[in-house]
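re the bet — no i am not wrong, look at it urself. input seq straight from the record:
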Amino acid sequence: MSTENNNSDQNTNTHRKVHYRLVRYKKLSKSYYNKFLTLSIVIFPTIIVVALLISGGIFDNMFNGGAPNIPTIPDNPTEPPTEPYKSDITLTTIYGQKIQLADHQGKVVIIYFFGTHCPGCPEQASILANIDDIYTSSQLYIVPICLDTTAETSNSELDDWLGGYDPNWPVIRDTVQYTYASYFNLMYKPTVKILDINGDIEATMVGTTQGSFNNIKTQVDALL
């Protein structure tokens, strides 16, 4: 009887141990499941958000100082074309040198029509020589054009006459057909034509009253 009781107690204890182990296992399983579920709720959405950020290039912007993706701008954009020079005429000196006014674009150009025998022409030439002394060669270019025929004034006389005012001026005589005078619509002498940096005629001054030092200087200053 005693032996049966002992066996019964042992069986009972064994069943209890198995039961407790099963209960403990279920608790642990439930705990691990809850932890797994919690981690899944946190981790999976995070993974999705990170994937979306990467695909949208947000991380690239963050690591590049937050700068957005801006198209590259060329270092040397195309410059606007230069405005065509309006008074594009080629003049010829008495020595055969060609002077193209368009080569002096960017400067104020003064065309001075004169004759060596006209009363007001020497005074006008003197005024222009004084004007020329004020500005640099990159600012102002003076072009005297003589209307005398060779019968009236020889080339050497013309050269000496102009050289007395400014030896650097080109020595130009109009053609027999007065091509240059016609081009600039000349009516009288002395006449000063003032061209802006693009060759537009901005002023026409006839005689030394209109073409005084102050009038010419004011006009040149306004065009520079």
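see?? The chain has two domains: 2-63, 90-223. told u. also The helical segments are 2-55, 58-63, 121-134, 155-163, 179-183, 207-210, 213-223. so pay up
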